[in-house]
Amino acid sequence: MPTATITASARATRRRSAELEAEIARDPGAFRILTGDRPTGPLHIGHYFGTVRNRVRLQQAGVELLVLIADYQAITDRTATSRLPQDVLGLVADYLAAGIDPARATVFAHSQVPALNQLLLPFLSLVSVAEIERNPTVKEEIALGGQAALNALMFAYPVHQAADILALRANLVPVGADQLPHVELSRVIARRFNERYSPDAAFFPEPEALLTAEPMLLGMDGRKMAKSRGNAVPLSATADETARLISRATTDSERLITYEPARRPEVSNLVLIAALCRDEDPQAVAAEIGSGGAKALKAAVTAAVNDRLAPIRARRAQLAADPGYLREVLAAGNARARAAADATLAAVQRLMHTGY
Ligand code: TRP
Predict the structure, then answer these.
(1) C-alpha angle 233/63/24, rounded to 5°?
(2) Which of 82, 156, 191, 272 is the 20 to 30 A CA-CA neighbour of 198?
């Protein structure tokens, strides 16, 4: 897609997202959100400020929230599955500690909802190979390892994600701009299914993207924050581990601390982290540190992160000590998701004349 087109559609989505926020405030019960993460390790502060906090906000506003632990997507780019049990339960602990309420929200795993995965087959027949090849995530994976190294589940990944959303009949998907093509594909699949198999009355609702306004946090080395790069501050880290991670952060040699993301990405990222933790404006945080240099900046960031995360970490430690409870929460979420996806698949089979 030419850049101009991306910008225009991102602008339209931003406008629509503002309307959606107003509709959510008026009638939260009209919305069902599906969102999720791959269980590839503990959540970090980038996840917290980028997505998790927003999910909790929407849950508190009264929107129905479904959170998918995408364990089948975890095997798109790794082969080992032996750590999945601990990573999956770890995610449940991270979610609950951060404020996702199991009494209101549904937390479930791909592998436990067979009907969801079965929808992948008819959906694959609704899209062309060329269309998937144009998906930015798939394109990136091809660029990284080449077509031959790409496994077919990774290739089908955007269609699988559409199955996640449509199986649960979600109508709202909170995403960053990079995930917009996935939501668009879900809309295309819903539309094509409806045209082909349910022309008189649309069966699948077309899900809408709710664009997340949060900026993407960088890791301590100035690259994208990712657990695999060792540059992330996990939600579950101790105060000492947090101090150590932040003390190693990349900065620059200018003593005066300012917030200039384009010119000073690493320093500005640290200022932003402190500002997010303190619910303050980054410019004000930078001004307060002033000519204190990197040392004062890192001390401020460490204190801000540890203060902000202290209650979450205390809750998480309690939860982690009770894996039986975490498993119960997941089992209840799996059962709810199974019931919903079973009903969708039964209707799909009726519409497709495959219910014998
Ligand atoms: N692909 C998302 C990620 O890697 C996780 C995910 C899977 C998801 N299915 C989803 C997100 C459906 C939103 C909706 O982070």
Answers:
(1) 105
(2) 156
Which atom of ligand 1 is nearest the CA belonging to 34?
Answer: 14
Tell me which amino acid residue 234 is.
P
Which residue of 40, 66, 182, 185 sits with most ligand 1 atoms within 8 Å of its CB, as the best mutation to test the pocket? 182
* Span 82-111, average pLDDT: 97
Residues with a CB atom less than 6 Å from ligand 1: 34-38, 68, 70, 73, 161, 164-165, 173
Average pLDDT for 118-133: 97
Using CA atoms, how far apart are residues 60 and 37, in angstroms rounded to an integer?
A: 20
- Which pLDDT tens digit goes with each residue over 171-206? 999 998 888 999 999 999 999 999 999 999 999 999
CA within 13 Å, CB half, 91: 22
Q: What is the pTM of this model?
A: 0.94
Strand partners, 34: 66
pLDDT for residue 220: 97
Both tokens assigned to 140: 């990136």
Span from the CA of 164 to the centroid of ligand 1 (angstroms): 8
Mean pLDDT of 230-256: 96
Task: Please state, in angstroms and rounded to a whole number, the distance separating the CA atoms of residues 167 and 341.
Answer: 5
Q: What CA–CA distance (Å, rounded) separates 61 from 55?
A: 10
Q: What is the largest CA-CA distance in the chain?
A: 75
Tell whether the model's pLDDT for residue 36 goes beyond 90: yes
Helix (H) or strand (E) holding 173: strand 172-175
Contacts of 212 (CB under 8 A, 6+ apart): 50, 51, 54, 174, 175, 176
Axis-axis angle for helices 180-197, 152-167 (nearest 10):
70
Q: Residue 1 pLDDT > 50, yes or no?
A: no
Contacts of 242 (CB under 8 A, 6+ apart): 233, 302, 305, 306, 309
Task: Compute the distance from residue 147 Cα to the ligand 1 centre, in Å.
Answer: 22
Helices of type H across 27-65: 45-47, 53-60
CA-to-CA distance for 308 and 273, rounded, in angstroms?
11
